[in-house]
Amino acid sequence: MKEVSDKSQIVDGKRKRVMSMNGVMSVVTKELLREQKTPVPKVQKTIVKKQDYNKKVIEKQQCKNDKRVKITKSALKELIQSHFIVVSDNEEAMIQSSKQFKNSLVEKKQINSSSSDSHSDSSSSSSRFLMFKYIYIYKYIDNYMNQTLMRLTLTPNKMIIDPDSQLTRISNKLIIDRGNMKMWESKEKFDQSFQPRKIFGILGIFEVSGKPVLLFIEDADIIGVMEGWPIYQITKVGYADKKHQEPDHDIFEKDQLEKVKNLFINTFYFSYGIDLTSQSNYQHNRFWWNNNLCKMFPSEWQLKIIQGYVGIFQITLRNLSQIKYCLISRRSFYKGGSIRNDTGIDTDGNVANYTETEQIVYMNNEKAKQILCRGSIPLFWQYNIFNNSIVISQEDPKKALNKHFQILLSNFIKIHFINLVDDGSQLSNQLDRYLTESEQLSIYKFNFKRAFLNNNKDLDSINKFLEKINEYIDFSSSLGFRQQNIMRINCYDCLDQTNIVMTKVAMMGIQKILQSFKVDILEEFNAQNLYIDLDIPSIHNIHPFLLYFKSKWMENGDQLRLIYKVGQQNSDLNQFYKNMVEEKQLKEVIHRVLGFPISESQANENIMMLERTMKKRENEYTQLLQKSVYVVTWNINAHQPNDKSLYNQLFQFTTPPHIVAIGFQELVKLNTLTVVGRQNRDVIENWKQILYNCLNTKAKYVLAAQQVMVGTFILVFVQDDEKLHISNVKTEIVKYGFGQSLGNKGGVIIKLRFYDSNICFINVHLPAGQKSNDDRMAAFDYIHNRAELNQCDWVITFGDMNFRINLTQQQVVASIQNYQNIQNQEQKEAILKHLKEYDQLHLEKLKSQFLKQFHEADIQFLPTYKFDIATEIYDTVKKRVPSFTDRILLKKIQKVAIHSVEWYDRIQGNFQVSDHRPVGCLIQTQVCEIDKKKKENLFRELIQLEEDEQFGHQYFPKIQNIKNFEPCTKYRQRAVQQNITLKPDKELLMKLCDPEFE
What we know:
Largest sheet: 12 strands, mixed
Structural class: alpha+beta
Coiled coil: 600-627
Pfam families: Exo_endo_phos2, Syja_N
Radius of gyration: 34 Å
Protein name: SAC domain-containing protein
CATH architecture of the largest domain: 4-Layer Sandwich
Helix content: 25-40%
Domain SAC: 267-566
Mean pLDDT: 77
Low-confidence stretches: 1-145, 570-574, 599-604, 953-972, 978-984, 988-998
Oligomer: single chain
GO molecular function, one term: phosphatidylinositol-4,5-bisphosphate 5-phosphatase activity
């Protein structure tokens, strides 16, 4: 039996065969004709123009009508639906029904085989057709369900992950050393004596009790196909230990691993061809749940997974147009626990249960989509699980609110805030107090509880309310539209009520999308407003699109409820506390997965408030100290030190700085021997000693840290008087050469704590070449992502960045000659300004949000590359374009700011031993110094206040109605009048609460 395909897709240059319903029809038709001994009709193929071939080959099949056999597409669809659970004529429906089909396959075969022999020939053909149909669909499903995406092989010393390059777009094997968990990519073949296991992907490395464990996706279901790529739902997670000789994990470790495995099951999704964490308007890692787990992996191995929901369906409209609908809900990991542990907003503007829902519609080669979002009420509040009440903090939420809205406004022009909280409630009143309408914010209120009072669902009132916002609902489209308005919907828990309203808002968006696709809404759906038709309860009088749409949104709501509510309210006390404990443990597991610090403060909101108060009052126990840092970078072109007086010229400062950072590139010649072989320790020690001696002619310095990677070398010296203030020194290397496996290119990193500020020095050597700018930017991003800079106060990145000037060699040389020949300073500055305008780093900063975070002092010197050796003449051999390749960049991360760049220049001296010239920078900065005694005293004071407040909440209400309460009240009043710090006599108060106390 031959397979006929009427649709094929090109993926990574290889044809991927996909059988459509037309393909099924063709095969079935041929099978029936063969059974009836009828000649198979010829098939005419029409191929589109050559230039469209690489995108998709479209084959139009035209079978001649046969008088004895006539099977239409609708007949085939009806036949399949009558005997098999398929709701649509597309591959997604078949995949979604795969489990039911497999379970019923044997039963169906038995039914068919037991058919009466008295049936007519046509019945016999139908029976044979059904048998054939089951065989075909089973094979079709297996094409997806039984694909091997990856194979994991565990040997005594290695973990080998071998991907299918066509299905995953990953070209190389990944090797992980089971001794130190280091990893690298390889194309080599390995020992086949070990049995591999089929897996679906790698989640990353998780540490339990300090032991790294590889987490992988052991099983997953395909829930649909988007743009030719399957979307998977994780159903099972496995792990592999560091070394198989080690003893088994103890009970605690096993429990932690089981919780992590359970976390990722059923509510997480991924795809190898579609980035589910982002929509095209912007990208944000807050939806990438395993980001921390896979950050050490090569970029193509960093599989992005989301928590939330994905649903897909496809139907045929009356005009025979195919319409595919995709619903994606991605939940942020910030405050990503359950409602018992995560509510409200934090100081960074992140709200609990923040979920971005994206609906995408494909029709006639066009694509349109709409973004909606929901999230917890953006105030500082908690849910009291014991008495089912809300506790609102007195902390001012204005700044947090502004940050929250700025996050949304960074991608949309206007926010439409739809508030479903009851009028007159605490939360509603608090929102009214802090929320005010503006050009960028519109506020709509709807009392949902009143509309559904006593189970009387007043859907008309919802529809009338939604009519007010209909004109503001828009979308993005391949036809040229861009969504400008974002609907931000919330109720008390952002679940059921929000889902009802959001479903209707989404359908309003769908109606506008379909109208933009020229679909006649009235003719197709027999309705003017589709969001009103959603209220029709009977499935017999509703359009199939609306039926499936409602189904997907109901599944979406159920999934989000499952995630956020976790353990439902239970009247049984034991079950109640069991749920509460499990959810706190779940939150701890989430924080471990995300790499957030784990402490009791995260299980106790009161302690979190305490930490915020300590942060606000840090000026009471910290002071800012003025310090100086000197940085020098030089590509030494494998020069070996000889004339020691030459290197004194590198340190051009009058007052010795507190820290000196030196970065060299091309310490040795970059060839196979030096890149792959061992480091030349003699060269390293020689340079280190010479630089140490040179520095100590200025002041007394000691070496704080060093790191080397092939030819990239960094040293950080600190004044001897300051060495006791250096702590937490860490060094790293980040390889970028040859697929991030070799150190001829990359970065060396030193992180240290100076007083109580964290500083990071990164010496980089980026890819060379006039036309390699994209590769340079990729290397720059990769190095900084691997450096993990979140805990740093500021970063200094320097080195041979290899950015070039986008002009010809003749143009740049002519400009340099003009600069050298004129005396007028304004004309000199004009020449430099012209060169800088074509500098690749300058041009990249104009379009890269990441680069804009880096500051570089104004360049007031000529290009530092490339010179003929032993001359001051720019390259006359290969005539490379003179460029500003050697740079020093500064980035502030925390609030401690770089005070000023005092000096930034090309270092003058006889440096003709290299084809580069060194660059130096003197920075005046501020560092924090914490008075630990003052901090401890403040902390104890706040703890005491917290204890007294909690004690007061517990006992003062109990003594308000007893006869001994009056003297206690007078005591408190007198204390206030005399400005006396009140320290409650807890023993007395407890006695006062005793009814028998006289």
